[in-house]
Amino acid sequence: MKIKWLLFTGLLIAVLVAGACTAPPAPAGESAPAAGSEAAQPKAAPAEAGEKVTLDLVFSTEPPTLDPSLGTDSQSIWAIRQMFMGLTGFDEQANVVPALATEWTVSEDGLTWTYKMRDDVHWVKLDPASGEFTDLGPVTAKDVEYAVKRTLDPNTASDYAYVLYIVQGGEEFNTADPAAADFDQLRDAVGVKAVDDTTVEFTLKQPAAYFPSITGLWITFPQNQEAVEAGGDQWTEPGNIVTNGPYTLETWNHGADMRYVKNPLWYDAANVQIEAIQGPIIESESTAMSMYEANEIDMMADPGWGPPLPDMDRIKADPQLSQELLIAPRLCTYYYGFVNNKPPFDNPLVRKAFAAAIDRQSLIDNLLKGEQVPAHSFVSPGNFGNVADDMSIGGWMVQEDFGAQLEQARAWLAEAGFPEGEGMDITLMYNTSEAHAQIAQAVQAMWAEAFPKATINVENQEWQVYLKTLLPDSPVEEKPEVYRMGWCADYPDANNWLNEVFHSKSGQNYAVFNNPEYDAAVEQAAREPDPATRQELYKQAETLLIEDATAIAPIYYYTYVRLYKPWVSYVISPVTGDPVSEWTIDVEAKAAARGQ
């Protein structure tokens, strides 16, 4: 099994080097036909005959979207990354690497980034009925320009558009009234331009050495304008979707199952062994575990379920399952957010009390059992700018003497005017999942013991409904006081965490945390070239978020906790997750295990 994992010492250097210098050339591929030639016209390729090499898994929930401009959650992003490729990507050491782009340069003032693109990546469309793939011609710089402007278009309503405010004119366009007389001019003024078919140029508001990481995010992935406009809200459905990556969507029976198939027209298709990714949508980890042990699926991992928490001791003790278990560091933080503008959690002392009344180590030792690390800050270890080793920020959440920590929590709540939780009736909400439910029940019990006069309710919602409930501008009366969420690195820099999640303008700011001093710190860090100064600014931001306001309660820094069958050879990227196109399956071993 192939796993490469490094702790990210000196990660900023890698990010800055990747951003500030010309990137190495991409692997050579066959050149695309010249535009307008006979060979460049749409043509059909037959689907491959015979039994396909298939990765069988379960999907833990319905992805809210397969639209690159709209994806915000791990389910959607996992699927988008299988089907689309952007200008840049990330390798197994979290370095920025070429993808659709072959190289990029930056101007001396740091404001203009120019990307040269491959000419052998094509748009394809699959007809699910016939199994035929149609080549719709090469992906061009105009497709990148269209996608970036579509993400920023307020009519698209992308919750992730804020990330592109670094692009000149991005914020002005995204916040404009679509009915305004100058709306088209604002679109034209956005700093992304197709210079020619294989050159795209970005103009930034301020220098940002990490910008090549931004062009590795799905919201910048090229999109086929004709497909989007023809399909409308249904453009990502089977038969409508047009993609440019190693896989595309064959079937999507909503709420039931999904199947992706290899794109035979992809430039590197010859090196893609797995020809199909398929599975049912199942919301029960225990059901998925039964399927795994019956050899019906090949893994218990994203985008489905990891091993059920109650089975961890059994798995570790089992001679076979223990060999199939993977535990490795992961650039993610699991946290409970407090809705900062909903009483009584509009009081920072209340938030501090509830954050302190969670016994994180006990939760890990007795429930999770995946070698997670108790968290006291938002940005996880392995990201530049993290303060996970600085106990001056949130250290009171992870004391060795939990009894003393609990007494402090009770004192803070009493000081806030709620002795022992008297008069409190709060709701802790999570998205539907056996594991999230078990964690919520454990924390509910901790809070009930800490604050015996409080009423602690636990509720769950299906993922898509849950995300809508938590949106910053959703009605506060419909929100819980406390919500479950996790954040994983889109790129390994604190900017991705602190600026893009809890900035007051962020669509991910479910806590409705609003602090001008915090905004100023993360904005300054984004344009600061000196690493030491950036580190200090991120520390200031974490202090404001966690130590002063306690806008959220970090609970643990994730690990990968997964099961893989021995016939699966896999690669894990700490940023992009699962590049299935690089995996292989021992078909004979899988068939033998299934008695075939």
Q: If you had to describe this structure to a student in words, what would you say it looks like?
A:
By secondary structure, the protein is of the alpha+beta class. It has a domain at 328-559: Dipeptide-binding Protein, Domain 3 (Dipeptide-binding Protein, domain 3). Helices cover 30% and strands 21% of the residues. It has 19 helices and 23 strands. The strands form 6 sheets. Strands 15, 16, 17, 18, 19, 20 and 21 form a 7-stranded mixed sheet that branches. Strands 1-8-7-11 form a 4-stranded antiparallel sheet, with no helix packed on it. Strands 2-14-13-12 form a 4-stranded mixed sheet, with no helix packed on it. β5 (101-106) and β6 (112-117) form a beta hairpin. α11 (348-356) runs antiparallel to α13 and α17 packs antiparallel against α18 (531-548). It starts with 10 loop residues before the first helix and ends with a helix.
